[in-house]
């Protein structure tokens, strides 16, 4: 039997997920229906899951809640997410960077969702809000999809033996849409809140804070790093369908300008954007491992798509810049100063007096001419 090769942190996370889910099932056994182990929800132990009315006694639940699943279906989905996604990201980022990402992806959404339900309870005094169980791998799933959008947006995933083919860059929007519809129609609002919070939090972390090595300098072992990802293709609007780019960009730019004015984040410079675009091209050209074992032709097609997308974004930026300012030729020619011809005056004694103070003989000049 072939040995499954998993990086150490991914292996530990899988063991933690299975162990915590089994312990939770023992602490909160199913008594409702025969299918309860497959379909149940909202029966989490306060020792492992996040319950707003009780979790202040058990602070570790702010992290452990992301590794507890209530039913077999959730356990299967989160397990596959960690198996494939964790294996890929840990190898692409190293174990230490992957650990930081997991810490942010599990802790921050749970804390914010906890505060949201406390706010609901404060406003409505609803016992349901204070006793809601917050748990599951939804934050990890959303965060992994954002990371894949950054690393391999043009990678095509084939489902059902090629019947359904979809690029990775479309998965975050579909994930948010599915959880939003489910939250509104089927009452799974906790999953809806967690998915949106994790999506925004992981994008902010990868966009502005994560430190990555410069792939363009990896061959020379310069050890240079870059903070965040200022590439055009990782902008917030590019997570959604193209018809929505303009309105989303208008709103996100206003929020971004407000955060810059409040000094919450630092604006990107032109060099940052250029470096981010170079990073995106370097990833497309094979600087990172593939998600699945794929053929070289697939990687070449992915690289071509990413290069075309980067060139399109660059062309849009140049077009917008040319509309705001003057053309480079006019601005450069305006800065050229031509020396004025020296004014000459002829004195009465036949000498030529230049304005710079030199003198010359008129007859010699004429003969030389």
Automatic annotation (TrEMBL):
<feature type="region of interest" description="Disordered">
    <location>
        <begin position="318"/>
        <end position="369"/>
    </location>
</feature>
<protein>
    <submittedName>
        <fullName>DUF1751-domain-containing protein</fullName>
    </submittedName>
</protein>
<keyword id="KW-0812">Transmembrane</keyword>
<keyword id="KW-1133">Transmembrane helix</keyword>
<feature type="transmembrane region" description="Helical">
    <location>
        <begin position="98"/>
        <end position="120"/>
    </location>
</feature>
<dbReference type="GO" id="GO:0016020">
    <property type="term" value="C:membrane"/>
</dbReference>
<feature type="signal peptide">
    <location>
        <begin position="1"/>
        <end position="32"/>
    </location>
</feature>
<dbReference type="GO" id="GO:0006890">
    <property type="term" value="P:retrograde vesicle-mediated transport, Golgi to endoplasmic reticulum"/>
</dbReference>
<feature type="transmembrane region" description="Helical">
    <location>
        <begin position="60"/>
        <end position="86"/>
    </location>
</feature>
<dbReference type="InterPro" id="IPR035952">
    <property type="entry name" value="Rhomboid-like_sf"/>
</dbReference>
<dbReference type="GO" id="GO:0005794">
    <property type="term" value="C:Golgi apparatus"/>
</dbReference>
<keyword id="KW-0732">Signal</keyword>
<feature type="transmembrane region" description="Helical">
    <location>
        <begin position="132"/>
        <end position="152"/>
    </location>
</feature>
<dbReference type="Pfam" id="PF08551">
    <property type="entry name" value="DUF1751"/>
</dbReference>
<keyword id="KW-0472">Membrane</keyword>
<feature type="compositionally biased region" description="Polar residues">
    <location>
        <begin position="323"/>
        <end position="335"/>
    </location>
</feature>
<feature type="transmembrane region" description="Helical">
    <location>
        <begin position="173"/>
        <end position="199"/>
    </location>
</feature>
<dbReference type="InterPro" id="IPR013861">
    <property type="entry name" value="TMEM115/Pdh1/Rbl19"/>
</dbReference>
């Amino acid at each position: 039997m072939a040995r499954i090769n998993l990086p150490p942190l991914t292996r530990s996370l899988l063991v933690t997920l299975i162990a915590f889910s089994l312990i939770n099932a023992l602490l909160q056994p199913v008594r409702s229906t025969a299918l309860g182990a497959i379909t149940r929800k909202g029966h989490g132990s306060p020792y492992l899951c996040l319950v707003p009315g009780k979790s202040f006694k058990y602070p570790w639940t702010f992290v452990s809640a992301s590794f507890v699943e209530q039913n077999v279906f959730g356990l299967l989905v989160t397990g596959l997410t960690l198996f494939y996604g964790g294996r890929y990201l840990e190898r692409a980022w190293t174990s230490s960077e992957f650990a930081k990402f997991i810490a942010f992806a599990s802790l921050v959404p749970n804390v914010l969702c906890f505060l949201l339900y406390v706010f609901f309870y404060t406003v409505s005094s609803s016992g349901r809000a204070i006793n809601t169980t917050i748990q599951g791998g939804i934050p990890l799933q959303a965060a992994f999809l954002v990371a894949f959008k950054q690393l391999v947006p043009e990678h095509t995933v084939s489902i059902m033996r090629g019947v359904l083919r979809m690029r990775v860059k479309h998965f975050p929007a579909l994930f948010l849409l599915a959880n939003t519809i489910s939250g509104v129609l089927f009452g799974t609002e906790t999953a809806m809140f967690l998915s949106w919070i994790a999506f925004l939090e992981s994008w902010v972390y990868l966009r502005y804070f994560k430190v990555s090595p410069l792939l363009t300098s990896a061959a020379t072992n310069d050890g240079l790093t870059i903070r965040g990802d200022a590439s055009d293709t990782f902008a917030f609007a590019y997570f959604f369908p193209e018809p929505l780019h303009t309105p989303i960009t208008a709103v996100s730019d206003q929020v971004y300008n407000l955060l810059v004015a409040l000094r919450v984040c630092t604006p990107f410079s032109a060099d940052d954007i250029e470096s981010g675009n170079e990073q995106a091209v370097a990833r497309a050209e094979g600087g990172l491992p593939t998600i699945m074992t794929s053929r070289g032709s697939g990687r070449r097609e992915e690289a071509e798509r990413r290069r075309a997308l980067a060139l399109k974004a660059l062309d849009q930026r140049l077009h917008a810049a040319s509309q705001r300012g003057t053309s480079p030729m006019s601005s450069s020619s305006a800065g050229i100063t031509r020396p004025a011809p020296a004014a000459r005056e002829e004195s009465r004694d036949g000498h030529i007096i230049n304005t710079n103070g030199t003198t010359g003989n008129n007859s010699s000049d004429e003969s030389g001419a």
